[in-house]
Design brief:
Two copies of one chain form a homodimer. With 234 residues, chain A is α+β, with helices and mostly antiparallel strands. Chain A is built from four helices and nine strands, in the order ββββαβββαααββ. Strand 1 of chain A pairs antiparallel with strand 1 of chain B.
């Protein structure tokens, strides 16, 4: 075969961006991490951390790099969310965006805006977001839907808790993410049925109520409940 | 702001491909649609239908166009699967691939290889795939995992059936996709509990056994069982 036959000459090339949606719970509120843009377009507007994929860089690596470069946050397990491939996303021209997301414990993150590239970095309540650059509002909404779905068939919410936690704390995490109250008896019964919680012989004082039992999670990572044949339909 | 500040000059550009994983059930076997490549690289090898995204084309549109151009199949609801963004996927250079998938009823598809672009197009059993071009084997495996997961929380399997079907036929579709036998009583009980099947007053003769009752699906599209608060943990 001729060399010409195996080159990429003649095929269109596209600018490819990555955008990262980091969720956390702070003060019983579900929040998302935003950075304030220093450059046009949308200069001064809030946006998701992100940027362009380099020529010899994997898309996954670009997402981690951009997050770190703008917010100092590293060591996050990012999951790919979706690729936004419409042609009109960016006023500068055609830019694809591969979006990633994660649910993190903000207390374990070292958030620090890198002023060389962004003016600021802050956690915002998902229910009171400022106007966002590009189609980032749509990306946040999509990520939120995925996160809520995921709550139903994985143990992703456990990432937010301390190593030992009460069932009330666990239920609280679910309620904040789902944005709705859950029935306490029903929640406890289903959670305990899963067989992934170990009851400790330790208790946590909780105001005027009797001390609440502490639990640990028997797994060290996020479990797909489906694969264990168990599902939590709250 | 200066025009230079809002251009995309200086950012890397990437070739972006789409690849389509179409699944069907034929003769009680789960199959995937492959095309035989006419051009280098991997000339003569089997591959997923797909190709490059055009300069002014949305990624979704490119997936539908490539499927149609190579196999004549149109009118499929493709769901985005994953973006494969490693740098070493293609011997010609850096190519991202946005993969899509769907589960279809092959009898409703007009499969015809378009000889201008591919040498052949055929359904292959997922358990006996030929060597595939690029990382397409990995993409098929990933799609299969997603499809099996999806079976647990949506009604995607119903797309394979006729408008009226027996519970045995429905169970058969699940078994073929999951690649394992399911307990008949358990399957029936859970399926009927979902409240998405309407029992007809019609029956289907089935050999020497007594006629089996026919059912219809009460919804006209794929239902997310989670959103209805129901999950099928087979």
């Amino acid at each position: 075969m001729s060399p010409a036959a195996v080159s990429l000459n003649g095929f269109a090339r596209h600018a490819v961006a990555v955008d990262v949606v980091l969720f956390t719970i702070q003060d019983d509120v579900l929040k998302v991490l935003l950075v304030r843009r220093q450059r046009a377009p949308f200069r001064g507007a809030w946006a998701l951390p992100g940027g362009f994929v380099g020529p010899e860089e994997s898309v996954d690596a670009a997402a981690l790099r951009e997050l770190q470069e703008e917010t100092s946050i590293g060591n996050v397990y990012l999951e790919q969310l979706y690729t936004f491939g419409d042609t009109e996303r960016d006023p500068r021209g055609r830019v694809l965006s591969v979006a990633y997301y994660a649910l993190v414990n903000w207390q374990r993150m070292q958030l620090r805006a890198r002023r060389e590239v962004v003016s600021d970095a802050e956690w915002f309540p998902v229910r009171r977001l400022p106007g966002l650059a590009f189609d980032h509002r749509k990306i946040v909404d999509y990520a939120l839907e995925r996160l809520r779905n995921k709550l139903n068939y994985t143990t992703i919410a456990f990432q937010l808790l301390q190593e030992e936690f009460t069932l009330t704390e666990l239920q609280g995490a679910y309620e904040v993410i789902l944005g709705q109250r859950l029935d306490k008896r029903n929640f406890r019964r289903k959670m305990l049925q899963l067989g992934i919680l170990r009851a400790m012989n330790r208790f946590k004082a909780s105001g005027r109520q009797r001390p609440a039992r502490l639990y640990t999670f028997t797994e060290t990572k996020v479990v797909k409940l489906q694969e264990k044949g168990i599902i939590v339909p709250f």
